[in-house]
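In the design runs reported in the main text, the only information available to the sequence generator was the tokenized backbone. The following block is the verbatim input for one such run; it is reproduced so that readers can re-run the procedure and compare outputs position by position.
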């Protein structure tokens, strides 16, 4: 059951985010509502980390990444969207990416270690590959942000173009990563055994 918390956490973020972004685009709700699915998903993921921690203490460290992401999401919710605060709001890109990498690293590392203990080499390799894909995704986001710092707001330049291209790549990678993490956590739920008291 514990690995299902991660599955449902990622799924809730993905599906509810589609709904809230659609409502925001139609001006039916305020923009801060977009952060609500993320917070709900991270809470579910934290529960998964807490329940697995007695069985795999190293993996339990990932909960602090999710806690940081909740705090950062709350900051994004209360930060007013104005030209004066837009730059400072965009600076949250870096700590958000770092916290996501921290959380994903311990999630994938924990699955790798449990898979190794239970002689599941294919699942272990899948967890490693998912971590690398997650890393590439977040690095792309940070690079897009860095390039945007050099872009000219009044006149398009090469930095603005590169930033836009990287942003598009990030959107595509982010979708792929969500699907891969859903697949990984579902396989972990099906293939790995945990003590009944922790599962």
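Verbatim output:
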């Amino acid at each position: 059951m514990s690995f299902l918390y991660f599955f449902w956490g990622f799924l809730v973020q993905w599906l509810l985010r589609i709904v809230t972004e659609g409502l925001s685009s139609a001006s039916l709700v305020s923009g801060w509502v977009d952060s609500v699915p993320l917070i709900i998903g991270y809470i579910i993921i934290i529960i998964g980390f807490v329940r697995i921690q007695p069985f795999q203490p190293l993996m339990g460290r990932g909960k602090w990444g999710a806690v940081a992401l909740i705090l950062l999401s709350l900051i994004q919710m209360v930060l007013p969207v104005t030209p004066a605060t837009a730059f400072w709001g965009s600076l949250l890109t870096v700590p958000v990416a770092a916290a996501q990498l921290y959380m994903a690293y311990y999630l994938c590392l924990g699955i790798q270690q449990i898979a190794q203990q239970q002689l599941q080499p294919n699942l272990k390799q899948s967890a490693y590959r998912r971590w690398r894909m997650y890393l590439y995704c977040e690095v792309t986001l940070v690079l897009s942000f860095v390039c945007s710092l050099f872009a000219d707001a009044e006149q398009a330049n090469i930095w603005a173009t590169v930033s836009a291209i990287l942003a598009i790549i990030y959107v595509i990678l982010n979708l792929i990563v969500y699907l891969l993490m859903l697949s990984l956590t579902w396989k972990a739920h099906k293939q790995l055994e945990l003590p009944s008291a922790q599962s």
